[in-house]
Amino acid sequence: MNHTEPSATATSTTDNPTQNPILQVDYSWRKWTASITEKSNPTQPLYTVHYRPFAISPHIIYKSTTTTPPTTIGTGTLHPFSINSHYTLTSHDKHHRGTLKALKRWKTSYTHLSPTHTDPTTGQLLPMTWTSDSDFKTWDFICLDPDKLPIAKFSANLWALKRIGVVEFMGPRRWERGIWDEVVVTGLTLLYCMVLRTSSLLSFFGAVFARPGPIERGDGDGKAIEGVQGGEEERDGGMGKGKRS
User: pLDDT tens across 10-23, in order?
Assistant: First the structure.
């Protein structure tokens, strides 16, 4: 079964449609900021990620640097007790507010409703699944589409000083910019969420009392809403009011 949603195609001066695009994530621990570039064009940033651990909300701001000034494409909000996280995402000129919801209590398994994968009949957002595998050095987060086929893998290096990870996109829609935006926002928010979970006693008790499982559609999760981006930007100092090309 193929679920499609029209999306702009990512452009690169060196892209090869037969290869999987790979993004590199470089982190500045001094500034708490990450720069994301395409591996084939490492001098041209595509995204910046601003981590704000002492902010009330949101804690993570995602910006596209392909516009002048950079445009906010999403945010991430962590919670000290709950093992779920929340995010906003701008896709197809609509602003979506969603949840990264735990499917398991003690295993890295999460789901979110995807604005780039919708039911062709009802238009409902379909669930994506994040799974993971890890060893002493790397932590792999794999995003599966509604048919349980991998569309992206975020490999995080837990010991890196600068290059903390790479994101590889795969499948027939691997060059779509809307999917890149969604994976960057949800994937990195999940990474921050898991780092918090592994280092916080409150998150441990949050897991004990959590109610993991699929997202219930009755609470409005994933619906397009007006004004999300503007509200988040006001709390971010009004940055990122450009328009994407």
Answer: 544 345 667 899 99
Distance CA 14, CA 40 (A): 6
Local structure of residue 106 (DSSP, 8 states): S
Lookup: tokens for 10? 């990512």
Distance CA 198, CA 73 (A): 27
CA–CA separation, 115 and 222 (whole Å): 7
Place of tokens 């709950």: 82
Give which of 49, 77, 51, 35 is closest to 228, Cα–Cα. 77
Q: Which of 71, 49, 53, 52 minimizes the C-alpha distance to 62?
A: 49
The two three-digit tokens of residue 2, written as one number:
């193929």
> Is residue 50 within 8 Å of residue 28, measured between CB atoms?
no
Residue for token pair 């906010």: 72
Q: What is the reported pTM?
A: 0.82
